[in-house]
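FORM 7B: Structural annotation worksheet

SECTION A. Query
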Amino acid sequence: MSSPDNDTVPREGESRRGEVRSIRELTSTLSTMRAQSEGGRVLRASCSLIRCMMFFDLCYLITGISLITVGLSNNPANKERMIMLGGLFGVLASLSATCNSLASHGLRVWRRGFLVPWMLYYLVVLSILVLMLARSFYTEHINLRQVFLFLICLTLFSCWRHIQKQFLLMAYPRPEQVVVDVEAVVRDLFGGSEAVPEPGKDLPPKYEEVEDLPPVYDPATMVQDSSAAGVSGAAAAGQVNQSNK
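SECTION B. Predicted structure
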């Protein structure tokens, strides 16, 4: 016959292995939840960025139409320049709006191929702006226009990097908005690894399994009890007074 100590050693080893397995499953679940949350955050930021770009496209298109209208209606000295500048604004705004529309559609259907025109177009625009900034630094002294152009290049580069991150993220399945109860996950993971109770030692009943209701108090009984308590209290006080006398 095996002694109780020899039986408890394998049981403790199994419980420890179960706890380690539960901790690994918990770590994997939390990592998945974190990845889903990060992917959802990047997707929301990308949608907001595309909407902001489309708003600027609309502003550029209105500006181009206004310049062309002013150049054709009046007779300014730089009429041709205003018309050319308005046409340039209109063409760039149209191309940007087309790329933004394709990118927005790609985010909805989760196909990263629709983000390629956006990335190529703004990469060309960013390259042109960087070349203009470098030429301005080489031929002119530092002025406010260079600072403004530098901020535009920095902002555009940050947007392009974000869309590149979104493009790489779209190689995986679309992140879903899932609300997970961490307490329930931990309880489910560690619920199967609880130690087996030793023979002769029963676990206490759970709260859900207790079906006995608390006793119902009768008002008449409560009044009788209170009156009896008052009588006994008065008798005790009388005995104390007699003993003092």
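SECTION C. Observations
Helices lie at 4-73, 79-109, 116-139, 144-169, 182-191, 219-244. Confidence is low (pLDDT under 50) at residues 192-198.

SECTION D. Sign-off
Analyst initials: ____
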